[in-house]
Amino acid sequence: MTTVFFDIDTQNDFMIPSGALYVPGAEAILPVIAHLNRYAADHGIVVVSDTDAHDENDPEFRQWPPHCVAGTIGQQKPAETLLERRTVIPTTPGVCEIDGAQQIIVQKQDLDVFTNPNLPELLSRLNASRYVVYGVVTEYCVRCAVLGLLKTGKPVELVTDAIRTLKDDDGRRTIEEFTAAGGILTTAERVCAG
Question: 132: part of which helix (H) or strand (E)?
């Protein structure tokens, strides 16, 4: 069975209290995310990390405060979430070089990672039989990722102790929607137990 981990939006602007669009409590899950990413690297599991990479006047800033502007510290991932061998997949269509990468950073300019036109080819090349998803924010970008991955027909697991929400009720509804669609809830301990 080929497993692929999806590390969603774990970027400084979301994960640390001084971030432009800080998710309350997100820094508390950083050690869990770092552990999951290291576990993946140690076990030959590819980590797909999606990241916002916005332009300075991005249309999304009409809905949300400016955040994760490409090239800024806020757009970067915290060091503990990065793996040694990584590559970046931009939002411009093209051939993606992923050979030997432990971590594939898929850039996006929208809530939904599936708006990156290179993602379908990447998923095809990775040929996963199972997806494990974690990160922020449960009711937004994590929701888009898990529901999109469920459409592949492969099992999708959501690591409940490695996600954070902005509104508890919205997060709960998202989890209910995910499980009703066939998604599986798990924990980091269960994922790393084998």
Answer: strand 130-136
Which CATH homologous superfamily contains domain 3-192? Isochorismatase-like (3.40.50.850)
Contacts of 100 (CB under 8 A, 6+ apart): 85
Find tokens 């590819």 and name the residue: 46
Helix (H, G, I), strand (E, B) or coil at 80: helix
- pLDDT (0 to 100) of residue 1: 78
Angle (nearest 5°) at CA 159 between 74 and 126 = 80
Element (H, E) at 180: helix 168-180
Cα dihedral 15, 20, 25, 27 in deg (nearest 10): 30
* Contact criterion met (CB below 8 Å) for 142 and 163: yes
Radius of gyration of the chain (CA): 15
Mean pLDDT, all residues of the chain = 97
Report pTM.
0.97
- Using the 8-state DSSP alphabet, how is residue 51 labeled? E
Taking the C-alpha atoms of residue 57 and residue 176, their distance in angstroms, rounded to an integer, is: 35
